[in-house]
Amino acid sequence: MKRIAVFCGSNHGARPAYTAAARAVGELFAREGITTVYGGGSVGLMGELADAALASGGEVIGVIPRPLWDREVGHHGLTDLRIVESMHERKTLISALSDAFIALPGGLGTFEEIFEVWTWAQLGMHQKPLGFLNVDEYFSSLATFLDHANGEGFIRTEQRNVAIFESDPATMLQRFASYAPPAVRKWIDDSRT
Hints:
Blueprint: E1 3-7, H1 16-32, E2 35-38, H2 44-55, E3 60-65, H3 66-70, E4 80-84, H4 87-97, E5 100-103, H5 108-122, E6 130-133, H6 140-151, H7 157-160, E7 163-166, H8 169-177, H9 184-191
Parallel strand pairs: 1-2, 1-5, 2-3, 3-4, 5-6, 6-7
Helix pairs in contact: 1-2
């Protein structure tokens, strides 16, 4: 994998572990020669991720909508900055540039972004791995809820298993490296019957 998208908060969150994790991911990607692709912000976990990757000699591609750039929350020191016109353009470009996706702790935007690329995988629009970095159990309740939705018949087991939950970023990369895309076409065909 050459490029991995990271979705994360534009705030730091309540725990120092969130900032530490964002920095650790940026540093890990730089060491492994992986380009960080993210939302282009200079604030919160987004800024920490980018700064850590850059300080460690890594490449960082930021994709930011013009309204956010105009509000001066964009990062001015990136390897490559792409300014787009809308959030939809941002997500489409991030997806096209990336070989995999990781969600770090974040809010509504983080959830929306990772769930959209997960939905695209379900629809067969890509076969790229995605995961949630479960820093200090941040995503544990989400994993439980997804298991509940699976048990209630709203998320198929194959779809639920696409999302990888890990607490260690290096382990997440190992799991991405051994990722075998599910038979997405079968899900789509089965849903028509």
